[in-house]
Fold Ig-like domain-containing protein.
Amino acid sequence: MSMECFVLFGVLTFLLTTNGADALDCLLEESCVLPCRFQPGAEVIIHWIQLADSPAHSYYHGNDQLSHQKLRFSGRTSLFKNQISGGNASLLLSGVKVEDEGRYKCYTSTVDHNKETFIDLNVYAPVRKVELHQDGKRITCSSEGIYPKPEISWSTDPPSNQNLSEKIKVQQIGQLYNINSSLTSVPDVEFKCTVSTGRNKMTATLFKLTFLSGSSTETTMHCTSSKSPPTGLIWRFNHSQIIVSDGSVMEEWRQQVKSVTMSGDLTLKDLSTDHDGIYTCELRNAEGTYVTNTFLRIEQSQGNVSNLNIHKLGDYTHCYCSSCWYAGLL
Ligand SMILES: *[C@@H]1O[C@H](CO)[C@@H](O)[C@H](O)[C@H]1NC(C)=O
Ligand SMILES: *[C@@H]1O[C@H](CO)[C@@H](O)[C@H](O)[C@H]1NC(C)=O
Ligand SMILES: *[C@@H]1O[C@H](CO)[C@@H](O)[C@H](O)[C@H]1NC(C)=O
Ligand SMILES: *[C@@H]1O[C@H](CO)[C@@H](O)[C@H](O)[C@H]1NC(C)=O
Ligand SMILES: *[C@@H]1O[C@H](CO)[C@@H](O)[C@H](O)[C@H]1NC(C)=O
């Protein structure tokens, strides 16, 4: 019984050490530790080799031996010196590059044992930010600095049967990819754009336009509430002018901005009809980007309930009650 167990264990370790290579994901331009352990002993020799045959780092006679090191690893590798005697041959690789991808062999030997460990290193630069911009009827979704090559896809609510994945542009700058895609906006539709690489994805959502009839003394507009706290917030007017960007209020808007809450809601004061227009909240958090457009119309005469308006906004005509204190179409 115990013999059987021993044999089985032996076979398993054999399989793991001959065919097994652990996969390791390393962030581009960051530092990464390639793990390797061995049974401690005297006269330690360590060779780190990127297959096929690019010496990355060697250690013997108690010192780093870098005379055969491939030039592109120069100054970027080190061992944890004070842990070598304890059996730690891990390699610290800094400033990770795309060329660092591939299989590595960690060869260790002491007077008693020698061992080979294999690691497959994959390099990636995740999607960190997806932007959605509207310019007239054109909506563009974009993201930058991604590796490996990203993909982009659109969806709408309600679903659309038109092919939305057209006009995708991918550009490679150095080793990183930039991607963008544009489409034509349609009224009363919510758009979602997702940029993904093998390892992560992020989504930007453009909500349907809402209408708000606001008071000239004070009006609050909302961003979309989402679970994660915002990491970035921009309020824009008429798709161009910036009102608030990451906490700082632009000079031209100091008179009007009363407050911006933690969740992104914007309160304006002392408004006139000059402030009629579209207010865009672009909120970013760990999950993605949320773009909320509010069409604000400032009430001129308060308390006048018989004030029905017809407003033409681009291609759409809206009829609404300007004193009714609620947003929506009639
Ligand atoms: C080796 O030591 C370093 C530094 O303490 C540590 O980060 C790493 O996890 C260790 N590796 C192994 C395989 O023990
Ligand atoms: C949508 O268009 C893209 C680019 O022209 C094409 O590659 C893709 O196959 C199309 N998808 C569908 C479902 O027609
Ligand atoms: C989209 O990508 C193309 C090619 O990389 C670039 O020329 C263009 O300026 C981008 N457009 C936008 C709106 O980002
Ligand atoms: C903002 O946009 C609205 C609607 O298109 C327009 O009526 C208004 O004149 C614009 N305001 C400014 C200051 O550009
Ligand atoms: C209410 O609106 C009507 C039509 O625009 C206008 O004639 C009237 O003077 C307004 N009343 C007040 C109290 O503002």
Remarks:
- Residues 2-19 form the longest helix (18 residues).
